[in-house]
Amino acid sequence: MNFDDTPQEAAFRKEARSWIAANAPKQYEEELKTSSLGRTRLKDADILEVAKAWQKKKAAAGWACLHWPKDYGGRGASPIERVIWQQEEGPFGKLSGMFIIGHGMCGPTMMAYASEEHKRRYLPPLASGEKIWCQLFSEPAGGSDVAGLRTRAEKRGDDWIVNGQKIWTSGAHYSDYGILLTRTDPTVAKHKGLTMFFLDMKSAGVDVRPIRQANGQSEFNEVYFTDVKIPDAQRLGAVNDGWNVALTTLMNERMSIGAGVATGFPEIFEFCSNLMLDDGPAIDDRNVRAKLASWAVKASGLKYTSFRAISALSRGERPGPENSIGKLVAGSMIQDVAMYALDLQGAAGVLSGDQAELAGKFQAMLLRSPGTRVEGGTDEIMRNIIAERVLGLPGDIRVDKDVPFNQIPTKGRA
Ligand SMILES: Cc1cc2nc3c(=O)[nH]c(=O)nc-3n(C[C@H](O)[C@H](O)[C@H](O)COP(=O)(O)OP(=O)(O)OC[C@H]3O[C@@H](n4cnc5c(N)ncnc54)[C@H](O)[C@@H]3O)c2cc1C
Predict the structure, then answer these.
(1) DSSP 3-state of 395
(2) Could you read off the pLDDT of 321-374 as tens digits, one per residue?
(3) Which amino acids bring their CB within 6 angstroms of ligand 1?
(4) If I label 148, which of 25, 58, 199, 348 is the partner at 20 to 30 A Cα–Cα?
């Protein structure tokens, strides 16, 4: 591994750094720096508006969706330049949260499967943040097993008529478009009868209902479809080949999520360094030191694993399983870190929001952390992937894999 920039990479870093220094919304820098995982608000401004304005500015100067082709709103940059940009963007990168699904998953899926006309029409406003996209895959009966979904699309003339329900759709309440996975043939095995579309979220018959979370916010939604009409021209990929299209989205999902997971280590280290316990500074306490040491080892393991992925990108290779490992390890670590910080706060740990210590930073982290362990593949699914694809262990038992979908026994259809 060589962590030094090549001369070209160093020149790119310098250019990115000076553009960010001259253009970033500095008035939010401190707040973004100190906000933890789970914080999606700014004190005195609407984060969606601030994020859209920053994205628009980046797009106008050629710094949005760096690795996308220029014709579709990107810069045509190399994957390693994208990593350098993310390093330099630092806390301002937290403003990209609401674009992750569009830029990381919907965009690449559109790029692979949409018509040229649609790519030129829909991708530039997606890159510039003018339009926000969501991903409509999960359903009450289809989460980890997304191929078990039940939302139906039936062909009528040149249109498809969609009926059903999605759940956990992040950002659907502020999204303009979405990619939607549906069942088009229930008489074949579950993976073989799916078709993907993209749709306007303002279409008649789309009903978005925000879900209220434990932290009081609503980041994701239930989405109901009643006789929603989607033109056949908005189909992505062949009829009944939606599983292959979905795999493109899911591969990109793991890359985007895995690349950005936080561990909570800098936050807990700083907290313990400043905390006074009854018998002295927390940082001098033997138990606290043991905990910090074990998290330091994990955090540096993850750091160097991510450097391995970056080195692979720099050599023009595709990173391997590093992203599955990153999400698996960091997801549970951040939950442990937040729990420990609240234990150290004693009775005050049960407070939340601005009344709590450090304005509720660790409380927000704790409430968000289970979501990290579930989104983009649960811990168990990540372990299955590592076991099967990395270690070559025998596959999970999949009894319904080759059974026609409408023959799979369910509670109501034994
Ligand atoms: C913060 C957040 C944002 C999300 N955003 C979106 C979004 O924008 N769009 C979208 O479509 N979805 C979204 N999701 C949904 C997410 O993809 C699903 O929650 C996830 O795939 C798990 O599905 P499920 O909730 O139905 O759980 P289930 O699949 O029902 O799993 C329940 C439990 O069973 C375990 N399990 C399931 N299968 C296996 C197996 N084969 N082996 C071992 N254990 C297993 C799981 O690990 C889990 O512990 C989001 C979820 C979260 C938490």
Answers:
(1) coil
(2) 666 788 899 999 999 999 999 999 999 998 887 788 887 889 989 998 999 899
(3) 101, 134-138, 143-144, 168-170, 220, 371, 374-375, 378, 380-381, 384, 396
(4) 199
